[in-house]
Amino acid sequence: MNTSMSWIKMYVPDLDVTPQEYMDGMTLSGTKVENWAALDEDLEKIIVGQVKEMEKHPDADHLYICQVDIGGGETTQIVTGAPNVHLDMLTPVVLPGGKVAGGHDGTTTKGGITIKDGKLRGVESHGMMCSIEELGTSREFYPEAPEFGLYEFEADAGVKPGDDAIHALGLDDVNIEYEVTSNRVDCYSVIGIAREAAATFGKKFCPPEVKVTGNDENASDYISVEIRNRELCLRYCARVVKNVKIGPSPKWMQRALASNGIRPINNLVDITNYVMEEYGQPMHAYDLDKIAGRRIIVSNAEDGEKFVTLDGQERIMDHDVLMIRDAEKAVGIAGIMGGEDSMITDDVQNLLFEAANFDGTNIRLSAKRIGLRTDASGKFEKGLDPNNAEAAINRACQLIEEFGAGEVVGGIVDDYENPVGERRVPFEPEKINALLGTELTEEAMLKYLASVELFQDQETKEIIVPTFRQDVYRTCDIAEEVARFFGYDNIPTTLPSGEATTGKLPFKLRIEEKARDVAEFCGFSQGMCYSFESPKVFDKLRLDADDPLRNAIQISNPLGDDFSIMRTTPVNGILTSLSTNYNRRNKDVRLYELGNIYLAKELPLKELPEERMQFTLGMYGHCDFYDMKGVVEGFFAQIGMHNLVRYDKNAGKNFLHPGRQALIIYDDVTVGYLGELHPEVAAGYSLAGTRTYLAVLDLPAILPFATFDRKFVGIARYPAVTRDLSMVVPMVIEAAAIEDMIRQRGGKILESLDLFDLYEGDQVAEGYKSMAYSIVFRSSEKTLEEADIASAMKKILNGLSSMGIELRQ
Amino acid sequence: MNEELRKKLSQVVEKTVSNLQSAGNLETLNEIRVGVLGKKGELKQLMKGMKDIPAEERPRFGQLVNEARDKIEENIDFVKKNLEKAAMEAKIASESIDVTLPARRPEIGHRHPNTIALEEVQRIFVGMGYEVVEGPEIEYDEYNFEKLNIPANHPAKDEQDTFYINKEILLRTQTSPIQARVMEQGKLPIRMIAPGRVFRSDEVDATHSPSFHQIEGLVVDKHITLSDLKGTLAEFAKELFGPETKTKFRPHHFPFTEPSAEMDVSCFKCGGKGCRFCKGEGWIEILGCGMVHPHVFEMCGIDPEEYTGFAFGVGLERIALLKYEIDDMRLLYENDIRFLRQF
To answer: Are strands A525-526 and A590-599 parallel, antiparallel or unpaired?
Structure first.
């Protein structure tokens, strides 16, 4: 919503604040001013001048030397190349040292252009006569200005040499842009904003006085109205104007419209636009002579009904769109746009004004479906006050009479079967104070309320809410009105009293915090990826056609195919990020992410899906599979998971290297997987030049095992005995099998084992590998004797031999 | 007493002492020690002459030998200590390093700026007794809108540009549905914050992202007032942006709070004088807040006559971008390590 300052002052004549004060005050009382711009910001020393003498420049064909009367008996010499310069013309003149906003081609220069004394082809020139473009505006708003050349004040402008030209043109004004919240429908009008301004600054509010207009005929003799869908059309007001005289509207109205960014066109269009801005009520004018049967019928469209709107476009309706019809045909889409057939043309004789009230939601949805959003629909969709329609149509007729634009027929056809009345809200001052934390008196509250026309019924003590306030229903709404004008700034600041509560982080979030700590200490930085991605991801990851991960939840209105499904795996996100880094030549990158995947219980979705938090790690550069494995186990140790972690190489992840992948299994539960990226997938992510490792941990699976409980078990008091074991092992035997055997046979006194050498190659027979473990024995009860160790070692050696492992002594 | 033996004894002592004085290192010292005190050392040799001494003089001679040994050992110890000290000093002197050579730094990863900002906010509110809770990212329309006083066809539903899965299920556009979920559980009083990911149908650019984060706050108790809301959020702003931070509350509209407000903080770059950072205004918009709407209470089964409450919602990215002066939102989701390493 925009208004000019001058338009606000029409209804708040005593308003005497600077634009900055206006902006601050309005914003603090709830009508947020987003921006304001002084129209004359870059204009200085511009007065009205009159050309008294002119002669051709001796050295240039297209230049004239003019003697210009600048008032006060002074004349100045100005050289101009303007094609329309002529004797006695009154035109804006910028004096030397003054500023204009831009060039005559319509380009503006921030800060303006300073005009200095100068010489044109050797002839002195003091100042410049201006076109409308040089004053920072355009012919759109000043239709009387010539296409090329100087702006000329018309005879009826009432200006004389020396007058302030900026004022004469109405450029001494400020354009204000508001952010109106959706609950304040009344503030989508100049009157509504002015009411707020008057209350904010404590000034008198003077809305326009609308006098009853019209001749002694009756509109009902000219037109009848029938509403067939009262749900969508609450009210329809119609008035008639005879003997229409189309012409320009008065300058003050043109200026008012221009200051709101609306182009003046002719008196009829300008009046409807003016009243729409002033009252926030859209109106439409029909050529009455083209309304068949002099009947207006408001009813729904047929599915597929075609209609040509006044912009000449044919549009297709459906049965939810409300139409305005005459006895034979459709003449307008209700609240959106009129039809071409009945539009006002220059030779209109008689016209029909419509000011109606249509259901906001229906208008909004219809405009969206048809793909035609207009100024009118923009107003209607907010849900207007039906009581405003009558005031607006009468205001328009009053202006018609004032401008002599036609003969207004008396009376109004007003179909308003279910009038909306004022609401009443109990006045509860204690509750208001209790909600706000204030100690205001009843009188103070009532004064604030009255400033926005919320008056108290003396008898019932209730607050009467006028129908234009569609946001005030209960005490909290009244409290807000009190708070707004008391000033949010004046409300004290306190802290909640009452029962103390313990601040805490839930267990899941504490585990996530630990995951971040471990990842970061292992050199991984945190990334964040989108929750939605492209369905193409599944092919990129080589997932089988029937892989359940493909059962992704689809967004019905995505930003595009690339963001159309909710991810079922975090792998694409981390790979995309690694790829970005790799292609930007960042070396040795390690990233992790904590984010949800979304798994539907059934598709299409009937209930909320499962959201599973995934702790995903990815890296490339100087690292390998076992580094990643170490990070996983390091994390487990930090969250109290000290049991043996098992790995199953049959992980079945198509996007990982078939020989370098494993499920991570803790206490028989699969809690995640890790592996090296499959070369083909790597190529798809432009990661072919490096090896990439991934680990994905499923936090919901891990949480039941995680704990922050710690128990001290003492430090061993007896010495440890270490034995080294070197062996030749058939290639097929995995380390885990050997370690299981050592653990099982080592018994209680086995403290730890550590692989310290692994060799495959020339020195070892084909199909074998050489491995060496260091085994540590210790008892918590005594110093171990040689015999204890020997017995344990014997069991271990026998066990290993039985596996086909050859021991080296 | 055999004069000759006695003389020899004192010669051995004198010679040894003089030899010790010129011993330059521990090896020489050891050679000297072995030469005098060793099994075949000079003292032992002299002791062999004992048998030629009359029996009555032997104890006297033995005493003299012991005295000589003591003297020699004393000298050896003294010289040894000096030599060891010198050796230690020489070693230390030879071990100086260039302390300005580059450090060997372990690569420690970096937290995402969003997380850093979130953890700061969490720390502040947990310290004030707030519990952190979570809610689903894919949410029912009912919780995201209806229970927040945004009925079907409310224009706010359009404004928020919602991603829908189907008519009933959507990607939450705000963390506010968690308010309704917590209130429905009926455990009062409530002091909670709820951080999380939210989604709006905005094209990606420098200031928009279809996915971002909010932190919701909710306090419900008896006698909670708008002034409590102001006080709490003013404290929060001071903790987050520095003790000099001023706050300004402007009336605003949210369907699920009444009265509602937006909070601005004084620009922490210029202190409120106006700079490029705050677009010359001196104030920066930070969050939306308000008193919980009684109808929202009613829908969640809480009696608005007995309880009041306040709620607020902060954009996490907004705070991260402002606080860390990040000029393009896209950087937050690219995960370029050169960006992440700066946090």
So the answer is: parallel
Centre a 10 Å sphere on the Cβ of residue A599 and count the other Cβ atoms it contains: 18
Q: Which residue has the higher pLDDT, B49 or B256?
A: B256
Find chain A residues with C-beta within 8 A of B191's C-beta.
496, 501, 503
DSSP secondary structure string, B226-255?
Answer: HHHHHHHHHHHHHHHH-TT--EEEEEEEET
Rg (CA), chain A: 42
Contact assignment for B130 to A501 by CB distance below 8 Å: yes
pLDDT tens-digit map of A131-160 = 999 999 988 889 889 988 999 998 888 899
Per the listing, tokens 């502040």 go with B124
B141-167 b/e (C-beta count within 10 Å ≥ 16 → b): bebbbbbbbbeeebbbbeebebbebee
CA distance A1 to A180: 7
Task: Please tell me the distance from the alpha carbon of residue B181 to that of residue A305, in angstroms, as a whole number.
Answer: 46
Instruction: Please report which helix (H) or strand (E) contains residue A664, including its range.
Output: strand A656-666
Q: Do B210 and A559 touch (CB under 8 A)?
A: yes
Full strand arrangement of the beta sheet holding B247-254: B131-132, B190-199, B211-221, B308-315, B283-292, B257-266, B247-254
- Answer yes or no: are the C-beta atoms of A690 and A588 closer than 8 Å: no
CA dihedral A788, A793, A796, A799 (to 10 degrees): -100
* Secondary structure letter of residue A300 according to DSSP: E
Chain A residue with CA closest to B212: the answer is A530
pLDDT tens column, B118-136: 999 999 999 999 999 999 9
Q: What are phi and psi of A159, to 5 degrees?
A: -115, 160
Sign, Cα dihedral of A798, A802, A805, A808: positive
Q: Is A464 helix (H, G, I), strand (E, B) or coil?
A: strand
Q: Considering only CB atoms, which chain A residues are within 8 Å of B259?
A: 435-436, 476, 479-480, 483-484
pLDDT of B159 above 70: no
| pLDDT of B60 higher than 80 | yes
Touching check for B335 and chain A: CB below 8 Å? yes
Q: Which of A475, A477, A480 to mutate to test the interface with B (most CBs of B within 10 A)?
A: A480
Three-state secondary-structure class, residue A603: coil
**How far is the alpha carbon of A395 from chain B, nearest alpha carbon, in Å?**
29
